[in-house]
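Hey,
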Amino acid sequence: LATATLTNLSTGATNTITGITVTFGLGVKSKHLALSNSYYAYGADHENIGGLSTSGRVYVRNLSDNSLKYTFTNPQSDFGASDNFGKRIAMTDDYIVIWADKWAYVYDLSDGLLEYSIDGGSIQHGDVSINSTYFGVGDIIYNLSDGLEAYDLVTATYTANMNEDYLVTTGGGSAKLWNLSTGNVVYTKTEETDGTYGQCSAITTDYFLVSDDDYQKVYQYSIADGSLIATLSEETTNTGTQYGFTIAASNKLTYVAQVNH
């Protein structure tokens, strides 16, 4: 069982949710949790439904009063154990995309109805991402307007994060920044070739970040010219704590987590 805490950055007030069952394991970042301007969501991918182990649920709550807006479960009629519905989630104020056992589901948050079901095929560790125009499932980008494929990135995708104009992906020891209007690679980045460069990624309007938790570093790059702006490293003397296991960022702050810290 896990506890999630929601903090209002203006007032410092917190809401705490207890008893949700989540595991981060191969999730590599806090993709069990998602936040938009009006809602927050958490994926309890190890919840049991009808005696089926780790079949999973996703909960969406209103930020205004913490009330529960929707509870989503796997829409497949033959869903089973170990589907891990909610293992990866991403959301805007309008839609949420949820990953479960090689399938992704897009729900309309205005009515809670299922909009699209996407067969992820052989994707096992792909991520999901979304903005106001597109949503991504693994290395394939879809139009949010009609659910049709916009383009296939044809790249190993371990993590993925979108802003309105760009997508950052990691996989195969490198990170790539993509222009979402063209589907073309803008920059390819590789730092420590024998580490876990690309363990996690994040993107803001001005920057994209990539972590390597073997070398315990986080690299911050400029979207404007691709230059390396900063290299963040562990501030303690501990080793082997996987600094950079999870990262998140805004244009003002970067959040870096490591195992047990």
